[in-house]
């Protein structure tokens, strides 16, 4: 194993996406396995926030091996809890080996119900098994005391629509649950008297805490929501899914555009922007491998499906490390200028 002083430090930005967060689990597992790397800071939203909190807790308990074990334990617990969920695949989907819930009676029932009845009416006691599971799995005192890895969690302030970033000392169970609070399913999470929804509406994930970080100039974005869809959606379900994807990627694209502008100023005007001017952007994402993931499958937490996503994520990270490890600490491996010149092609260049 290499000495810590020779390791390359990176900051991670983790998107949300329900059970598709198992893709991120796979990426994290592969990055933690590589002792040439050191994770300094993590910014996460929704499932990305959960992955970040679980990783930091596990790292505080037992280093990188402890983090990998904690992530596997968390996702296995998610799968076990889902066994009794009414959201199950239809017999036909099981027969055909599809992990979509598009034909699931339970999914279709709750999807329709959520459009006419609010969670305040449907769940007046605000019961949330995921909250209980996360409370059992994560020691948030460990997350906040972890000196090796700083965690930033983003939630959306309901009244203003602005993002709020919870950092070391404020990363609590409530903060993470607020970051993952889908308003169609759960009442807003109240923190300090203020209501919060899913952080994906305002930052998915937030990059600014990492841009201003002194720990590393390298931001590795783990993107699990596709920017590009190659086919135009035509069905009602496809249209709703695409609208949601665009909405949850908008804040990320705006932050990337701001970083690109700062880098352009540095290059053309010679203005010193400090840490922001030295930011290196990397993207771990394989466009082709998310095209077949139905939106409804974000609610499918069967263990075989989570393991399938995990292995895909490990493959993404393996390909990225092989292609771009030498660029860490020196330059971006994701071409922001090309992305904004030709956004339809740029994601395919990432890995």
How would you characterize this protein structure?
The protein is built from 12 helices and 8 strands. With 351 residues, it is α/β, with parallel strands linked by helices. Helix 1 crosses helix 2 and helix 2 (47-82) packs across helix 6 (129-137). The radius of gyration is 20 Å and the shape is globular. The model is unreliable at 346-351 (pLDDT under 50).
Structure at a glance:
The chain is α/β, with parallel strands linked by helices and 351 residues long. 44% of the residues lie in helices and 13% in strands.
Question: Which shape, going by the Cα principal axes?
Answer: globular
Query: What is the end-to-end distance?
Result: 26 Å
How is the biggest beta sheet arranged?
8 strands, mixed
Strand share of the residues? Answer: 5-15%
Element pattern in H and E: EHEHHHHHHEEHEEHEHEHH
- Number of separate helices: 12
Oligomer: single chain
Uncertain runs with pLDDT below 50, 5 residues or more? 346-351
Q: Could you report the average pLDDT, rounded to the nearest whole number? A: 89
Secondary structure class reads: alpha/beta
> What share of residues is helical?
40-55%
- As a whole number of angstroms, the C-alpha radius of gyration is 20 Å
How many E-type strands?
A: 8
Which structural traits does this protein have?
disordered C terminus, alpha/beta, eight-stranded mixed beta sheet, globular, 351 residues, single chain, 12 helices
Write the layout of secondary structure elements.
Blueprint: E1 8-14, H1 21-33, E2 37-44, H2 47-82, H3 91-96, H4 105-113, H5 119-122, H6 129-137, H7 140-145, E3 150-157, E4 163-166, H8 173-179, E5 189-191, E6 194-198, H9 208-211, E7 218-222, H10 236-269, E8 280-284, H11 303-324, H12 336-341
Parallel strand pairs: 1-2, 1-7, 2-3, 7-8
Antiparallel strand pairs: 3-4, 3-6, 5-6
Helix pairs in contact: 1-2, 1-11, 2-6
């Amino acid at each position: 194993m290499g000495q810590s002083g020779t390791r390359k430090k990176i900051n991670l930005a983790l998107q949300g996406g329900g059970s598709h967060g198992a893709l991120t689990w796979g990426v994290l597992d592969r990055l933690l396995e590589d002792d040439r790397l050191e994770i300094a800071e993590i910014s996460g939203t929704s499932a990305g926030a959960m992955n970040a909190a679980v990783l930091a807790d596990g790292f505080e308990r037992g280093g990188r091996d402890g983090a990998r074990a904690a992530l596997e334990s968390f996702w296995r617990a998610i799968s076990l809890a889902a066994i009794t969920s009414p959201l199950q695949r239809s017999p036909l989907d099981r027969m055909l080996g599809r992990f979509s819930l598009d034909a699931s009676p339970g999914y279709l029932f709750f999807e329709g119900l959520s459009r006419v009845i609010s969670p305040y009416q449907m769940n007046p006691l605000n019961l949330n098994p995921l909250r209980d599971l996360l409370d059992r799995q994560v020691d948030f005192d460990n997350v906040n005391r972890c000196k090796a890895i700083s965690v930033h969690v983003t939630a959306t302030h309901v009244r203003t629509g602005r993002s709020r970033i919870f950092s070391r000392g404020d990363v609590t169970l409530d903060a993470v649950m607020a970051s993952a609070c889908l308003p169609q399913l759960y009442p807003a999470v109240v923190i300090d008297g203020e209501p919060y929804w899913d952080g994906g509406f305002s930052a998915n994930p937030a990059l600014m805490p990492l841009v201003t970080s002194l720990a590393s100039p390298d931001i590795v974005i783990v993107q699990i929501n596709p920017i590009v869809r190659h086919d135009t959606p035509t069905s009602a379900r496809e249209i709703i899914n695409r609208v949601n994807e665009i909405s949850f990627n908008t804040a990320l694209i705006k932050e990337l555009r701001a970083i690109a502008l700062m880098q352009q100023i540095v290059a053309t005007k010679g203005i010193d922007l400090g840490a922001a001017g030295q930011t290196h952007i990397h993207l771990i994402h394989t466009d082709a491998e998310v095209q077949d993931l139905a939106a409804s499958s974000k609610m499918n937490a069967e263990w075989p499906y989570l393991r399938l996503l995990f292995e895909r994520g490990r493959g993404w990270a393996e390909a990225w490390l092989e292609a771009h490890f030498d660029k860490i600490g020196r330059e971006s491996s994701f071409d922001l200028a090309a992305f904004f010149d030709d956004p339809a092609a740029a994601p395919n260049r990432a890995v």
